[in-house]
């Protein structure tokens, strides 16, 4: 579910008209992701016919958000330098990949939660994250060590 | 199979290419692997496209006629090519210099002269406790430095990693990304003047009051807990210090309190290789004149251009039009320029002669020297025959 | 009409590596300056504006982005042709510049090359 605000932003009117109450469409995109705002609040999307296609796409994209996400982890690739901090600090990785990520090397297990691919971090296997499932804990270790907030959580 | 990334002086050796995806390389490294075919240089003489051998011949003729030549760059090529470049400079009785003369060359020199104690990045990973990033923001300049070698990995003697087994210090004039990571077990010192912090370390060791006495005191105390502490010095430190000697003396003095080492935190992939190669041959790390038989500030590429001391510049694998200040770069129009580069860089675009070359670490193998002095063997993805070695050999033979 | 466009403000500029703007192909370096949000607010500059940055008698037009890691009294220009063009050898990595909101497109690499070596 690698939803990122850039993809949402691209489909918004990008006029920064402020009708939604946000200063920019970009911040509206972020708020949408955080479920602090609803798509309907961007009235131009619904009033202006030329946005219809974009609106449909957006509605589709945002659907998963409605059904509370599993872990709520979002990566904004535009802010990610691929530094690998998040991959190396993740306690699950440290435990499962003692000769790879735990000692700083590129992760060697096949189903890591996060992996740096093509220059930015990608979510590979959400199910392994501590925030997932019945015994979930509110782990924030990866986000805490990302200095550009390229990693966010929908909640907590 | 793993590849070595030639993107910066971390020389990460764990890059994998799986189904066309590049794994583990940071954004900059990835771009080198992904886009090495883009914006390639073409052989040109005075704006006209020629074949590669004609460009090399033309360059050889220019060098034969030149009275004062400078060879500049080579920080992104291999040690083997650097050796040839230095040989060529010797044969031409020329000047030779690289980016390190305005970057971290003097720190490397102090290390090679054994004035600054140093260690390896593996030892840092396995043993270091206090690590000071001073005037360096590795998040942008050496993106994987902290996750690969220093703060984040768990080391043999530091199994609990950053949470408990490391103490991070960041010194900068601004709250950089790296500074933001200095949270628990850490200290961010926002300085206006780096000399004042150097001074504070001295004063604290003498038991006197000082501007940053509190911070310096805490850091010294933390250092006492470990047999390995390290300062990573970056460009901010280089430009912030008025007197390198005083800094070297500070490190020496702090070693009486606790073991402290220094590793440069600069970014050209093989700048240290250039420094070491030239040092072995001449006893100087950069800005060297074969005519005068010594190194001197006057022989820095920047000074030579500003003072009109050269008529020809051979620029290898570096882009002074992008990286040097206007008052230096604009002087390029007064000399003949021969650019040897894989790419049509802004400098290549203004060159009199362009000789296209291969991308080291992708199209040419060889050795590069990591920031801590470790020698790393590069892998090749797609060999290209016309590389820096071929070109430099051909020029030398033609002279 | 915004008044700030008539005002020149002085800014402290730090030149530094910026991985998100790197261009390893050496073909399309991004003309951008990162202001500290506080500085931008004080100076009436918004994200997305084009500003003229003038130092040492030379000027370039750069697109404004915001970054908390910029110096509070100014901005960061990433290492590269635009920063280099503005600087002189002393004050290479840190200098003062005048900022003014401008019209039109940001400067291009080609334009600067022309000025460095006509
Ligand atoms: S209402 Fe829509 S168009 Fe206007 S700023 Fe908000 S998101 Fe952008
Ligand atoms: S998400 Fe953040 S911590 Fe992870 S690789 Fe990207 S920049 Fe680094
Ligand atoms: S939230 Fe915790 S477990 Fe999940 S990816 Fe981040 S660090 Fe790993
Ligand atoms: S940190 Fe340097 S060597 Fe490592 S992947 Fe990034 S650019 Fe390449």
Which features would summarize this protein structure in a list?
heterotrimer; A: 156 residues; alpha+beta; two-stranded antiparallel ribbon; 7 helices; C: 118 residues; alpha/beta; 6-stranded mixed barrel; 18% helix; disordered N terminus; binds iron/sulfur cluster
Account of the 3D structure:
The complex is a heterotrimer of chains A (156), B (399) and C (118). By secondary structure, chain A is an alpha+beta fold. Chain A is built from seven helices and four strands; from the N terminus they run ααααβααββαβ. Chain A has helices at residues 5-11, 25-33, 43-47, 52-66, 85-89, 91-96, 141-144; strands at 73-75, 114-117, 120-123, 151-153. In chain A, the strands form two sheets. In chain A, strands 1-4 form a two-stranded antiparallel sheet. In chain A, strands 2-3 form a two-stranded antiparallel sheet. With 399 residues, chain B is α/β, with parallel strands linked by helices. Chain B has 19 helices and 18 strands. Chain B has a nine-stranded mixed sheet with strand order 4-3-16-15-14-5-6-12-13. Chain C has 118 residues and is α/β, with parallel strands linked by helices. Chain C has a single domain, classed as Barwin-like endoglucanases (Beta Barrel), CATH 2.40.40.20. Chain C is built from three helices and six strands, in the order ββαβββαβα. The radius of gyration of chain C is 13 Å and the shape is globular. Classes of the chains: A alpha+beta (156), B alpha/beta (399), C alpha/beta (118). At the B-C interface, α1, α6, α9, α12 and α16 of B face α2 and α3 of C. Bound molecules: iron/sulfur cluster (SF4) (4 copies). Residues 75, 80-86, 116, 121, 145-146, 148, 150-151 of chain A line the site of one iron/sulfur cluster.
Q: Residue-averaged pLDDT of chain A, rounded?
A: 87
CATH hierarchy, class of the largest domain in chain B: Alpha Beta
Figure out the total of helices of chain B.
19
End-to-end Cα distance of chain B, whole Å, is 41 Å
Tally of contiguous helical segments of chain A: 7
Q: What fraction strand of chain A? A: 5-15%
Q: How many domains of chain A, as an integer?
A: 2
How big is the Rg of chain A? 17 Å
The shape of chain A is elongated
Structurally, the number of domains of chain B stands at: 2
How are helices and strands ordered from N to C of chain A?
HHHHEHHEEHE
Biggest sheet of chain B, in brief?
A: 9 strands, mixed
Strand portion of chain B? 15-25%
**Integer-rounded radius of gyration of chain B:** 22 Å
Mean pLDDT of chain B: 96
* Overall form of chain B: globular
Secondary structural class of chain B: alpha/beta
Uncertain spans of chain B:
none
């Amino acid at each position: 579910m690698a939803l990122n605000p850039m993809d949402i932003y691209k489909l918004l009117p990008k006029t920064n008209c402020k009708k939604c109450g946000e200063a920019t469409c970009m911040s509206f995109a972020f708020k949408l992701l955080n479920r602090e705002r609803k798509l309907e609040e961007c009235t131009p999307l619904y009033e202006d016919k030329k946005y219809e296609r974009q609106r449909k796409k957006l509605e589709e994209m945002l659907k998963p958000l409605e059904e509370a996400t599993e872990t709520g982890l979002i990566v904004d690739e535009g802010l990610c330098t691929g530094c690998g901090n998040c991959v190396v600090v993740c306690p699950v990785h440290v435990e499962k990949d003692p000769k790879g990520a735990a000692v700083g090397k590129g992760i060697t297990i096949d189903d890591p939660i996060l992996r740096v691919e093509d220059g930015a971090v990608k979510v590979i296997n959400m199910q392994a994250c501590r925030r997932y499932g019945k015994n979930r804990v509110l782990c924030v270790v990866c986000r805490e060590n990302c200095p550009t907030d390229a990693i966010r959580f929908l909640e907590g | 199979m793993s590849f070595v990334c030639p993107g910066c002086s971390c020389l990460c050796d764990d890059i994998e290419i799986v189904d066309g995806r590049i794994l583990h390389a940071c954004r900059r490294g990835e771009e080198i692997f992904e886009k090495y075919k883009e914006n390639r240089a073409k052989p040109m003489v005075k704006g006209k496209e020629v074949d590669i051998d004609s460009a090399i011949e033309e360059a050889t003729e220019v060098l034969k006629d030149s009275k004062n030549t400078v060879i500049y760059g080579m920080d992104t090529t291999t040690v083997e090519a650097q050796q040839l470049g230095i040989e060529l400079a010797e044969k031409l009785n020329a000047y030779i210099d690289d980016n390190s003369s305005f970057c971290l060359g003097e720190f490397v020199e102090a290390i090679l002269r054994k004035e600054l104690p140093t260690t390896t990045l593996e030892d840092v990973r396995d043993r270091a406790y206090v690590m000071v990033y001073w005037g360096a923001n590795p998040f942008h300049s050496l993106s994987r430095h902290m996750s690969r070698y220093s703060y984040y990995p768990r080391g043999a003697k530091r199994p609990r990693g950053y949470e408990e087994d490391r103490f991070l210090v960041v010194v900068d004039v601004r709250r950089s990304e790296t500074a933001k990571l200095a949270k628990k077990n850490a200290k961010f010192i926002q300085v206006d003047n780096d000399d004042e912090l150097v001074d504070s370390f001295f004063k604290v060791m003498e038991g006197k009051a000082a501007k940053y006495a509190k911070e310096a005191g805490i850091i010294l105390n933390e250092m006492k807990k470990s047999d390995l502490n390290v300062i990573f010095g970056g460009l901010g430190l280089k430009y912030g210090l008025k007197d390198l000697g005083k800094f070297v003396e500070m490190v020496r003095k702090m070693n009486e309190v606790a073991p402290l080492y220094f590793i440069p935190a600069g970014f050209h992939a093989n700048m240290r290789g250039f420094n070491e190669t030239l040092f072995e041959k001449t006893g100087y790390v950069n800005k060297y004149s074969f005519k005068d038989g010594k190194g001197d500030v006057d022989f820095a590429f920047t000074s030579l251009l500003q003072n009109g001391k050269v008529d020809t510049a051979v620029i290898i694998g570096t882009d002074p039009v992008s990286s040097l200040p206007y008052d230096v770069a604009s002087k390029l129009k007064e000399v003949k320029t021969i650019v040897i580069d894989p790419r049509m860089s802004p400098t290549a675009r203004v060159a009199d002669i362009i000789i296209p070359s291969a991308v080291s670490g992708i199209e040419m193998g060889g050795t590069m020297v990591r920031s801590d002095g470790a020698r790393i063997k590069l892998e090749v993805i797609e060999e290209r025959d016309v590389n820096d070695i071929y070109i430099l050999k051909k020029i030398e033979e033609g002279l | 009409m915004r008044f700030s466009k008539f005002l020149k403000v002085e800014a402290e500029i730090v030149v530094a590596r910026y991985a998100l703007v790197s261009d390893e192909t050496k073909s399309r370096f991004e003309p951008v300056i990162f202001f500290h949000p506080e500085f931008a607010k004080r100076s009436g500059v918004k994200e997305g504006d084009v500003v003229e940055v003038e130092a040492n008698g030379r000027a370039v037009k750069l697109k404004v982005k915001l970054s908390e890691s910029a110096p509070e009294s100014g901005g960061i220009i990433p290492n590269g042709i635009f920063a280099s063009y503005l600087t002189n050898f002393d004050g290479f990595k840190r200098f003062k510049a005048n900022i003014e909101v401008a019209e039109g497109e940001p400067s291009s690499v080609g334009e600067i090359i022309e000025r460095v070596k006509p």
